[in-house]
Amino acid sequence: MTKDFHSWRKSRHSEPNGGCIEAGRASDGTIGVRDTKLHGAGPTLEFTPSEWKAFLDKIRTDSH
Question: Which of 1, 12, 30, 57 is deepest in the core (most CB within 10 A)?
């Protein structure tokens, strides 16, 4: 069952051509990530708060 995510935010690193993602949060703290081109109709990746932190830490470390 898919969680009810809210407060979707588009990535600051979004491309002007629409190639971007957005992230939202569920009431239990789970973070959902989806492709904005699908207007909410596509799949949503779900991360626990600790998985999300590890994911962001890795991205930030590898981008330098």
Answer: 30
Taken in order 2, 39, 34, 41, the sign of the CA dihedral is positive
Q: Where are the domains of the chain?
A: 6-62
Exposed (0-12), middle (13-18) or buried (19+): which is 19, by Cβ within 10 Å? exposed
- The total of other beta-carbon atoms located within 10 Å of residue 50's CB is 9
Q: Note whether 32 and 25 are within 8 A (CB).
A: yes
| Cα 1 to Cα 39: distance, rounded to the nearest angstrom | 19
Query: What is the side-by-side strand order in the sheet with 21-25?
Result: 6-10, 21-25, 31-35, 45-47
Q: What is the pTM of this model?
A: 0.78
